[in-house]
Amino acid sequence: MTRGLISLVPFALLMQSHVLKGANAFTKTEDDVTLLAPARGNTCTPGHDILEEDCIAAATSVGGELRDGNIVVGNWADTPPGCFLEASDKTIHYGRNPGSVNNGRFQPVCVTPSEEATLLQAGIDMKCTPGHDFLKEDCATAALSVGGNLRDGEMVIGEWEYTPFGCFLGEDKAIHFGTNVDGKNVGNVQPVCKTAQDEARLLPAPWSGAKCKIGHDFPKDGCAAAALSVGGKLRNGAIIVGGYPDSPPGCFLEPIDNGVHYNTNADGVNNGQFQPVCMVGELKAELVPAGQGTKCKPELEISKEDCVAAASSIGGTLRNGKFRVGDWDRTPSGCFLQKSDKAIHFGRNPDSVNNGQFEPVCIAQEVEAIIIPNLHEGTKCTPGYDFTIEECILAGAAVGGKLRRRKYLVGDWEHTPSGCFLQFNDKAIHFGTNPNSRNNGYFLPVCKPGPIEATLLPGGHGVKCAEDHDFSKEECVTAGKIVGGTLRDGKFMVGEWSNAPYGCFIDPSDNAIHYGREMDGINIGAFQPVCKTAAHEAALLPAQPGNACEQGRDFTQEDCIVAATSVGGRLRRGKYLLGDWSHTPHGCFIEAKDKAIHYSSNADGHNMGFYQPVCMY
């Protein structure tokens, strides 16, 4: 330590020190502490200093030793502030001078930054994904953690054109920081980036047509970092870019060598040989109940990279802000929650056996669910169409339900439906275990959908579904797809349009599925309502004089369009023809020459032989 200050400060005062004895409450592990290299100016980054009372335990965890059983404390000018080791003998010190500067002979002991670092491979244009760059003051610590070293004890800083912006390692692993935001990696340096925690996932198995969902694609400049985080490799140090017709659009791996590719062809179709790399959000998780030996099926296991995002989506939390990873033998392997506090864990021991205190988190199978939208007393699911307690979270989420304060609410209530349901006011997901409970009208049962039969009406002015033949908003997408509807850019269109019918309908210009919430909306003729198929099937009688439906076999005026459409009828110029004709049959019929749908209110009308009655059978 510098003695050049003796002339200014009495030597005894300069070197005055005292000792701190005894154990303290520091409980961090070696993984939580970083020992920096002995380099001029090296110090902990702001916010990563070790407290004086924690210094002994922290420094001991990285190889420090007490001098004669004591920590050495002082106000030196040429040591780093805070906790450090003297490089020559690893003795533990604590510097109380916040303005001191490391002369290069001391190793700061620091709290490991919460952001883990990933060392990318050297490659042309290789750089960190936007938002995953380390700040200049964090670069040395991050780079040291992935094998970097300080050249002559210092980080090299420059404004180079041929290196990436930010933190990187040179060919000799020397730590650099590039300040040129337009710098371009020519392929000989390795960017040091913040690990993309829980942001990328690899679709578990390639299948024909597999691709990321809309909005879950990585951009080209984010593909390399994302793919490397899930096991990808750069072939000859570079990402392979092309406009392939037989691979998925966007970022993907070729399984034979995990080579990272990016397909610029938006119309590319995966032939089943490639694995898309997608943003997390694609993954849906379900919670398996805690029980002796319970675990995920092998094909439904969630990776460590996906575990936090998946588990958080179903109520998991980080205990003290930390993701717990270990080789336990009494927990399930893979991703799981501790039952007592929902803390998120990942078990790396493939032979471990759940002792019943842990809840495995698994990839969920696709769930289709509907809610019974009518708020009436006693509403519940039809027997046989109930979801189990294990299925309820995912089923509830599929129809807009949410976990209230991240909790799945299970109880033995008397005033709710039994089984899975949502509370009307906030859509909180519940499960009622009381089989004798009765819905008081404030809860929405979540049920398995029964077979849906849908009819697509022709477009026409004022055309809408008959009363009680509307699909609910929750049923609309499924019903719309049955009759050829699609999602426009992957989106279900919901709005309050005055010029469209209420309920479920399709825009025939692109078959996009819509749901109109405007009860008084009037179809201007450009939209085709999607309606529940009439309970009675329709029969078309031949066009013969006097032919009419038998008494009690007539369709109502409201049901006529649906019934007549099912037997080949159509709207003439988009219009439903209503009248009080005397020369036609009473009720619903089509004109034989052009199949135009009519309804006559004249109970005494007599078929002249040109019309085909539409009757129930």
Quick structural gist:
With 617 residues, the chain is an alpha+beta fold. It is built from eight helices and 35 strands. The longest helix is centred in the middle third of the chain and has 10 residues, at 220-229.
Poorly predicted parts: 2-31
Mean pLDDT: 80
Distance between the termini: 103 Å
Radius of gyration: 35 Å
The percentage helix is 10-25%
> What is the strand tally?
35
DSSP summary: helix tally? 8
Strand content: 15-25%
Global geometry: elongated
For the sheet with most strands, the description reads: 5 strands, mixed
Describe the structure.
Strands 1-5-3-4-2 form a 5-stranded mixed β-sheet, with helices on one face. The chain has a 5-stranded mixed β-sheet with strand order 6-10-8-9-7, with helices on one face. The protein has a 5-stranded mixed β-sheet with strand order 11-15-13-14-12, with helices on one face. It is α+β, with helices and mostly antiparallel strands and 617 residues long. The termini are far apart. A hairpin with a 4-residue loop joins strand 28 (503-507) and strand 29. The protein is built from 8 helices and 35 strands. It is elongated and about 115 Å long.
